[in-house]
């Protein structure tokens, strides 16, 4: 059974939030590199810009995208949005440890809950869209983000693509990744079972591009890939 947008928020409970930093770095080989490159891609798309307001959607957990961007660009400020209270609290702790709370506004809820007149110079959506059930929910979050972006503003999108069962070699390699970090064969089997049942990724890069186009974004440039995961930069059109 696939997850729905509601259960996607609910499943990121306190237990999952507490282990998110370690588990995400195992599940995504190159986790920190992806976050670092996302910051570099945004900075490159801006050119010389001393200040910017960045909307960070699904910021809960490690807050690593904010940490990476803030380190690169000391004049940027951030609005962090997440529907999971435990995940947002985990992010808050990371931001506090890195002395970034004064540069970050935290919002428990969804993008649609932000004030209608709030606009941003850029946005990130990292590790979120494959948890949303169906194309309509994915398209809706892209559209909600677009509504808060200035004309031509960049958006970083990152997450899993492909139907998991359609890529058996990648799925097997994913299992080996967990084994590489100490999981037993039975534990690997359980983890892969949860993956197959707990998310609904787009079935191809072309599907991601189509969803972005339908939501009012231009062609996306892929800048990172790791097994099922890819990251792109696109910009608001119109």
Explain this structure.
The protein has 238 residues and is α/β, with parallel strands linked by helices. It has one domain: Vaccinia Virus protein VP39 (Rossmann fold, 3-Layer(aba) Sandwich). It is built from nine helices and seven strands. The radius of gyration is 17 Å and the shape is globular.
CATH fold node name: Rossmann fold
Q: How are strands sequenced across the largest beta sheet?
A: 3-2-1-4-5-7-6
Q: Tell me the structural class.
A: alpha/beta
Number of DSSP E strands: 7
CATH homologous superfamily placement: Vaccinia Virus protein VP39
Rg calculated over all Cα atoms: 17 Å
- In CATH, the architecture is 3-Layer(aba) Sandwich
Strand content: 15-25%
How many domains, in number, for the residues? 1
Question: Which spans have pLDDT < 50 for at least 5 consecutive residues?
Answer: 1-7
End-to-end distance: 38 Å
User: DSSP helix count?
Assistant: 9
Name the average pLDDT. Answer: 91
* Major sheet: 7 strands, mixed
Order of helices and strands: HHHEHEHEEHEHHHEE
CATH class: Alpha Beta
Molecular shape: globular
The percent range for helix content is 40-55%
């Amino acid at each position: 059974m696939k997850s729905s947008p509601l259960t996607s928020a609910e499943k990121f409970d306190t237990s999952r939030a507490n282990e998110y930093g370690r588990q995400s770095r195992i599940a995504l080989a190159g986790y920190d590199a992806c976050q670092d490159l996302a910051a570099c891609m945004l900075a490159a798309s801006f050119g010389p810009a001393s200040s910017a307001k960045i909307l960070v959607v699904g910021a809960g957990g490690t807050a690593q995208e904010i940490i990476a961007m803030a380190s690169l660009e000391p004049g940027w400020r951030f609005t962090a949005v997440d529907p999971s209270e435990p995940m947002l609290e985990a992010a808050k702790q990371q931001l506090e440890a890195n002395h970034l709370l004064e540069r970050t506004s935290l919002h428990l809820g969804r993008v649609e809950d932000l004030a209608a007149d709030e606009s941003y110079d850029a946005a990130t959506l990292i590790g979120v869209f494959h948890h949303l059930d169906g194309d309509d929910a994915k398209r809706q979050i892209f559209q909600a983000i677009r509504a808060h972006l200035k004309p031509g503003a960049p958006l970083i999108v990152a997450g899993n693509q492909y139907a998991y069962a359609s890529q058996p070699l990648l799925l097997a390699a994913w299992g080996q990744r967990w084994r590489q970090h100490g999981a037993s064969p039975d534990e690997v089997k359980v983890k892969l079972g949860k993956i197959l049942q707990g998310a609904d990724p787009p079935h191809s890069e072309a599907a991601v591009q189509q969803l972005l186009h339908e939501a009012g974004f231009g062609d996306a440039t892929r800048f990172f890939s790791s097994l099922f995961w890819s990251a792109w930069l696109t910009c608001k059109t119109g």
